Amino acid sequence: MRLLQGSLLALVVLSLVVPAVAAGQSGEQRVLAVHLDNDINPVTQDYLESAIERAEDEKLAAVVVVLDTPGGLSSSMRGIVKRFLAATVPVILYVSPPGSSADSAGAVIAMAADVAAMAPQTNIGSSTPISLGGEDISKDLRRKIVNDAAAYVGELAREHGRNVPAARQMVTKASNYGAREAKEIGLVEVVAPTLRALLNQVDGLKTVPKGFVLDTAGAEIENVEMSFWQRARDLLVDPNLIALMLSIGL
Fold first, then answer.
1. What is the rounded CA–CA span in Å between residue 236 and residue 217?
2. Does residue 26 have a pLDDT over 50?
3. What separation in angstroms does the CA of 60 have from each of 51, 111, 158?
4. Can you give the residue range of the structural domain that contains 163?
5. Would 199 be classed as within a structural domain?
6. Residues 6+ apart with CB under 8 A from 180
7. CB-based contacts of 161: which residues, under 8 Å, 6+ apart?
8. Mean of the pLDDT values across residues 192-211?
9. What is the percentage of the chain residues whose pLDDT exceeds 90?
């Protein structure tokens, strides 16, 4: 009888332990790689925000924004920054492939990511605000806009443990940094030649300030691109096209 009771007790304990282990292994180790090689605008903002929402719903290991942008609209940039900061999954920004850049608004967005990374032969910076059509801004207004932008990017850098003076100088002096220099001065955390190499390098990294511990080595990568209709909408809000239409009176 005692042997039977002991066996039953062991089975009960085992039934509690085994599901717990299985639950820890049931979550799929998957990363969403969101490719953005366009201007920052309302369409690309919606595209990125939707990807983050999906990653949160599916409890993925991370979202990687693979970025190559000349910049874009301040309003869309700030919307993306807010979504990055509110994300409940790690957001990694990766300036890639080689030859790409995160300029202007793209550099500011990078400072809001949980991990900022770059491929070799890429650059980041030149975030001094300009008007949509490239017109001159009055001295007082320019000072106001530049000071606001510098404080904004500086605070993002500070909260994420990055080089605050270098971040501010992207705005105040239009400074631009290559991948190696950006890592050396603490503006980004990682330089990696490929997305797979990046995921292996950041595995186990604890992010600042959210404290995510990344579990990305060997993760399945699901690549996401803008759909045809998203690209069509994106073309319609292209700042260059809008400026051209305004210049010819359309």
1. 39
2. no
3. 11, 22, 27
4. 28-247
5. yes
6. 120, 191
7. 186, 208, 209
8. 98
9. 74
Can you spell out the DSSP letters for 49-87? HHHHHHHHHTT-SEEEEEE-B--B-HHHHHHHHHHHHH-
Strand-pair category, 62-67 with 123-125 = unpaired
Q: Is residue 38 part of a domain?
A: yes
Band of pLDDT at residue 85, cut at 50, 70 and 90: very high
pTM of the model: 0.84
Token output for 242: 């809008």
Answer yes or no: is 74 within a domain.
yes
Q: What residue type is assigned to position 161 of the chain?
A: G
DSSP letter assigned to residue 180: H
Asked if pLDDT for residue 36 goes beyond 80, the answer is yes
Among 175, 190, 161, smallest CA distance to 103 is for 175
Q: Left, alpha or beta for 211 (phi > 0: left; psi -120 to 50: alpha)?
A: left
Q: How many CB atoms lie within 10 A of CB 2?
A: 6
Number of domains in the chain: 1
CATH number, residue 180: 3.90.226.10
Q: What is the pLDDT of residues 111-162, one digit of tens each?
A: 999 999 999 999 999 999 988 766 667 888 999 999 999 999 999 999 999 9
Q: In this structure, what token pair is assigned to residue 82?
A: 């807010």
Residue 79 lies in a domain: yes
> How many DSSP H helices and E strands does the chain contain?
10, 9
- Annotate 220-242 with b (16+ C-beta within 10 A) or e (fewer): eeeebebeeebeebbeebbbeee
Answer for the pair 222, 32: CB distance below 8 angstroms, yes or no.
yes
Tokens 């770059």 label which residue?
A: 118
Q: Torsions phi, psi of 232, nearest 5? A: -65, -45
